[in-house]
């Protein structure tokens, strides 16, 4: 599946709740349907970001781990 990325957010090295705070700010700047790619090293972000996306009406397209970096793709609702 090819995902077109509209913005990349580097939240590596930040502890909870900063990845969510920065994600919220970044997604607010996007248009509906655009995709935000988030990179974080906060292990709690997997649950936090998926729950946050769902509660905000956004879609978590996928997530993966690469070299201890968690990557998420969220489509703005």
UniProtKB/TrEMBL annotation:
Cross-referenced Gene3D superfamilies: TusA-like domain
Cited InterPro entries: TusA-like, TusA-like_sf
Record-annotated membrane-spanning stretches: none
Ranges for domain UPF0033: 9-33
Signal peptide per UniProt: none
CDD domains assigned: SirA_YedF_YeeD
PROSITE patterns reported for this sequence: UPF0033 (PS01148)
Similarity comment text for this entry: Belongs to the sulfur carrier protein TusA family.
Protein name: UPF0033 domain-containing protein
Species of provenance: Peribacillus loiseleuriae
